[in-house]
Design a protein that fits this description.
The chain is α+β, with helices and mostly antiparallel strands and about 300 residues long. The protein is built from 2 helices and 21 strands.
Length: about 300
């Protein structure tokens, strides 16, 4: 009997040793697995972390986390440490902030709808490990503006070409379109011949050319790129000879030869009849004088 009990105890002891060995091996494998460097969550650094967005267009910050497991991803606004989202839930009253995620995917995207310049700053994508890990993203929200090269008021001799160039400034991406308006209407190609528009999306520029301008071409011309504030210029088409009324939008000063007949401007003083006067003027002053002379009948 004692021999039988001793045998059973020995057999049980062997089983215990085997079980302990198996558990040790399994435990070692599990421990070894978690000790591997890529078993813990880590960030995929292939996404852009410097983002520029324009006012009114959604800003997207893409955070990619590998091996997330059961951890949570949060978006934090760095300047006030405000928690914006946790997982796909929004934790702020500002509903412009939203977390986008596809089930089973590695990407957690913070979307800011209708961003404003005040939204510029640093945002952190944070993972709930111990200790926490985070990745910073820098967002710049800019106001894209159009600019028509040259002065805001142009005087064009009748029969010459109107040539306007518009550039979309501070636009992070090429505009989808650039429209030209005269007054409140899109420039109509079929309205008259000699109108052409050349738009270069990559350089964010558009050129409007109106050949052989006539008086009816005078008016307010507006350049309006997509996602940009528009810009305008007033064009005056002047009849008769006027060598200084040519389009010189890039000059800071202009020289003009005026034949003095019978007009006088209070700020020019008296000049004898039949003499010529050379005046060097800034563009703005020149514009006022030309407008007074040629649009109000001062030049006879």
């Amino acid at each position: 009997m004692e021999t039988r009990i001793g045998g059973l105890l020995g057999l049980l002891s062997c089983y215990c040793i085997v079980i302990a060995t198996v558990l040790h091996i399994i435990g070692g494998e599990v421990q070894s697995y978690w000790e591997q460097p890529y078993a813990q969550p880590y960030f995929d650094n292939s996404t852009r972390r410097e983002i520029t967005a324009t006012v009114g267009q959604s800003a997207l910050l893409h955070c990619r986390v590998r091996n997330l497991g059961d951890r949570a991803v949060s978006w934090i606004r760095k300047r006030d440490l405000h928690i914006l989202t946790v997982g796909i839930l929004t934790y702020t009253n500002d509903q412009r902030f939203q977390s986008l995620h596809t089930e089973g995917g590695d990407e957690w995207t913070l979307r800011i709808t209708s961003p404003q310049p005040r939204d510029s700053g640093t945002y952190e994508c944070q993972v709930s490990t111990e200790p926490k890990i985070s990745q910073a993203f820098r967002l710049s929200v800019v106001v894209s503006k159009a600019k028509i090269l040259g002065n805001t008021e142009l005087f064009i001799k009748s029969g010459s070409d109107i040539n306007l160039t518009c550039v979309a400034l501070q636009s992070p991406a090429p505009p989808s379109f650039i429209y030209w308006y005269k007054g409140g209407r899109v420039v109509n190609y079929s309205q008259r011949g000699g109108i052409s528009v050349l738009t270069e999306r990559q350089t964010k520029t558009s050129k409007l050319v109106i050949a052989r301008a006539v008086a009816s071409d005078s008016g307010n011309y507006t350049c309006s790129p997509s996602s940009s504030d528009s810009a305008s210029v007033v064009v005056h088409v002047i009849n008769g000879e006027q060598p200084a009324a040519m389009q010189h939008g890039n000059s800071s000063a202009n020289s003009i030869l005026i034949n003095k007949h019978s007009f006088s401007l209070a700020y020019l003083g008296a000049v004898p009849r039949g003499t010529s006067l050379i005046i060097s003027l800034t563009s703005s002053t020149l514009g006022m004088i030309l407008k007074s002379i040629f649009l109000h009948g001062a030049y006879r």
